[in-house]
Every structure is written in structure tokens, then in C-alpha cells.
Write a structure and sequence with these properties.
Number of helices: 9
């Protein structure tokens, strides 16, 4: 089955050029030239990938990304930006974009990024199928892997897609210390060197949602000079000493 891609780009020359090359690769493509139309399509139909410009008439790309992520964790999002400001790229990553390209970009690089995102999606899908553990319970936390839901003391916790992926990465490897770079590679994918602060901000928000006292965390622990780890049994026992 052909992969479906939604291109939301107000520059018709760029949009049609990208569409032509994606069709040559065998992908089914849909075009939207403004944010309002793009958002409606993104929320009403199922796409494997959305190529999304940040600067759009109507609804901007960041808001579209935010709305799509609130509805779907599985749709890949590749953001395009003509801005040189780092804040745009960081915001895109923070709200759930999987990758970004800064204009002007080469079609060759775009196609490489698209293929890499699809490979990553397949890897994640295969890993999920191979993982027989459907629920993970750690103290007051209950994580439904299939439904991507988290309960804290029986009450639902609202996590973004990346916050959930980050938590799952930790709970599947209790006691293992991850550097920020390792977390970037495993949760966000390739191409994010230099964005370690993105990991820090996600961990701070995640702690704010699952820790009783984020300043003295019991689940996600800092390892000075290295990174972070999820508490293991030995750490739990120290609480009662």
C-alpha cells in the first residue's frame, strides 16, 4: 500500500515541486495551500506523513502540529521553516514534530528525510508488535502501552506524544543511565545534535505531571554529569531507609 503524504505549503512552486518528486517515489500526495484547509484535512483524514510549513495563511504550522499531535501520535510530521531563528525549530520539536528542514532545502535531502521517517515509523511499529508487555505498573504509575495512556494513582495523566515516548523509554530500562544525546536519538530520532535542552524541558514537564514533588523526584532521577535514569528497586529501597 502506498504511503500517504499531506503537504501543507503556501508557496505553490515549492508545494508542486515536492509533490512531483514524492509521486515519482510512489507516494500518494495531497496538497493544501493554507493552514485552515491543511488543518481540516489533517484532522479529517489519515496520513502517514505531514510535510508542514510553519508560516502559513490562516492557521500557522505550529498550531497545526499541536492539534495533530493532540489527535494522533502515529502520524509523522516534517516541518519546513524559512526562519533562521532557533526558537521555531525548538518549538516544533517541543510540540511533537519528528523532524524539520530549513528553507532553502534540496529535494534530495527532503526525500532522504521522508524515507528516514518512514523507516523509523516501521521500526517503532515492529518494536511495539514484538513487545508483549501491554501494561507496565511501577508504584503509583500504570502505563497502558497499546492505548498510550498513563494513570497516576488511578487518575489519568495527560501526556504529549513525546512525553509518553520518553516515559516509556525510561520504564522499559529501569536503572539504565541515558545521556541527553541517547534520549534524543531514541525518542526524537536522528538530526537533533545540539538540542539537549529539548530533553531537559521535556523531563521537567514530565516530572511536573508524574512526580509528587518534582524537586525531589522518585521516578526520573538525575545522574550528575551524565544524564537521567528511571528508578530501580535499589533506589526504591533507599526511600524507606
Amino acid at each position: 500500500m502506498s504511503r500517504s503524504i499531506l503537504i501543507i505549503e503556501d508557496d505553490s512552486d515549492i508545494a508542486n515541486l515536492v509533490k512531483m518528486h514524492l509521486k515519482d517515489e510512489g507516494y500518494a500526495t495531497t496538497l493544501a495551500f493554507d493552514g485552515t484547509t491543511g488543518l481540516k484535512l489533517a484532522l479529517s483524514k489519515s496520513f502517514d506523513l505531514i510535510i508542514l510549513d510553519i508560516m502559513l495563511p490562516g492557521v500557522d504550522g505550529l498550531e497545526i502540529c499541536r492539534r495533530v499531535r493532540a489527535q494522533s501520535a502515529s502520524t509523522s510530521i516534517l516541518m519546513l521553516t524559512a526562519r533562521s531563528a532557533e526558537i521555531d525549530r525548538v518549538l516544533g520539536l517541543e510540540i511533537g514534530a519528528d523532524d524539520y528542514l530549513t528553507k532553502p532545502f534540496s529535494i534530495r535531502e527532503l526525500l532522504a528525510r521522508v524515507k528516514a521517517l518512514f523507516r523509523r515509523a516501521e521500526t517503532l511499529k515492529t518494536g511495539a508488535l514484538l513487545n508483549s508487555q501491554k501494561a507496565i505498573n511501577v508504584r503509583d504509575l500504570s502505563i497502558d502501552v497499546d492505548k498510550r495512556k498513563v494513570l497516576l494513582r488511578g487518575k489519568p495523566v495527560s501526556l504529549t506524544a513525546k512525553e509518553f515516548d520518553l516515559l516509556l523509554q525510561f520504564v522499559k530500562h529501569p536503572g539504565r543511565v541515558f545521556t541527553r544525546s541517547e534520549l534524543l536519538n531514541s525518542v526524537w530520532g536522528y538530526g537533533y545534535e545540539g538540542y539537549e535542552h529539548t530533553v531537559n524541558s521535556h523531563i521537567n514537564r514530565l516530572r511536573g505531571k508524574i512526580e509528587e514533588n518534582p524537586a525531589a523526584p522518585r521516578y526520573i532521577l538525575s545522574v550528575r554529569g551524565v544524564g537521567y535514569k528511571f528508578a530501580e528497586e535499589a533506589d526504591l529501597e533507599k526511600e524507606h531507609v
